[in-house]
Amino acid sequence: MPVEIEVRGTIVPDGDKWIYDYFEQPCTTAADIRNKIRSANGDVLEVSVNSPGGDIFVASEIYTALKSYNNVKIKVTGLAASAASVIAMAGYCEMSPTAQMMVHNVWTCQSGDYRDMDSASESLKKANRSIANAYCVKSGMAIDAALKMMDDTTWMTAQDAKALGLVDKVLFDVDDEEGFYQNQLFNSVLKENAKAMYATIPRLSPSVIAKMRESRENAPEKNEKSENELKALVDQNLESAKAYFNYLKLKGNVKND
Questions:
Q1: By the 8 A CB rule, do 158 and 174 touch?
Q2: Enclosing domain of residue 230
Q3: Could you say which of 100, 128, 129, 167 would form a disulfide bridge with 95 (CB–CB 3.0 to 4.6 Å)?
Q4: Alpha-carbon distance 182 to 2, whole Å?
Q5: Is the Cβ–Cβ distance between 27 and 11 less than 8 Å?
Q6: Taking the CB of residue 243, how many other CB atoms lie within 10 A of it?
Q7: How many other C-beta atoms can be found within 10 angstroms of the C-beta atom of residue 151?
């Protein structure tokens, strides 16, 4: 019997899942996928992808786990953007005609002097080449073509992705080689709308995640206080972080990664 896997929300490290759960934000971790793979026992994995992306190293771990399993069928049902597009490369992939795929360069935050910036730049270039390998392996495109696609922050309809070899089939047999979905004006509007919607997808800011991690790290050891006292202290810190998150939302400072 097929085992269903959902790649939903932001792709995050295992240790940050509790933060997203607390704020009731969807997320996917490598542990989520590993547990599903262990339960499959050789049955086909049916992977549904609708994610704005997230941590590239987590995405790499998920990609590798799925690619190693071999018996995988992937469907892009909504959005496969950024790191999520890498996961979509892990096997036979079908894409809904209403879905979008986006690939772009790896990014990070860095502070320091020019040496730190130069080092960060070189690290990002190497990370780009690593991620580009997924697109090359799937489609057969040259590495320079993949890097150019990433440089351009490329948004793709299902037909675009199929033409590049990044997906194997457009769902529901919508080939439409010369029809509605190939209309340049329609494609342009569709992609611009996708970009606008991508910018409004709610994700926890790095500052909120850092504050939540700090609240857990600063909690006293269980043997120093009773369980109820510990829970009260942690809840107090978490409520403070949640209030801070709402404050950032009001200011408009919670943005997509």
A1: yes
A2: 206-251
A3: 167
A4: 34
A5: yes
A6: 10
A7: 12
CATH assignment of the domain containing 62: 3.90.226.10
Start-to-end C-alpha separation, the chain: 37
SS3 222: helix
Q: Which string of DSSP letters, residue by residue, matches 135-166?
A: HHHHH---HHHHHHHHHTTEEE-HHHHHHTTS
Q: Are residues 84 and 127 in the same domain?
A: yes
Is 159 part of a structural domain of the chain?
A: yes
pLDDT in tens, 222-232: 444 445 554 55
The verdict on residue 257 lying in a domain is no
Q: Are residues 141 and 79 in the same domain?
A: yes
Q: pTM, whole model, 2 decimals?
A: 0.75
Of 203, 184, 190, nearest to 249 by C-alpha is 203
Instruction: Measure the CA–CA gap between 232 and 216, rounded to whole angstroms.
Output: 12
Cβ–Cβ < 8 Å for 150, 159: no
CA 245/CA 25 separation, integer angstroms: 12
Asked if 97 contacts 78 with a C-beta cutoff of 8 angstroms, the reply is: no
Residue 182 lies in a domain: yes
Q: Is residue 231 part of a domain?
A: yes
Number of residues that this document lists for the chain: 257
CA distance 152 to 135: 15
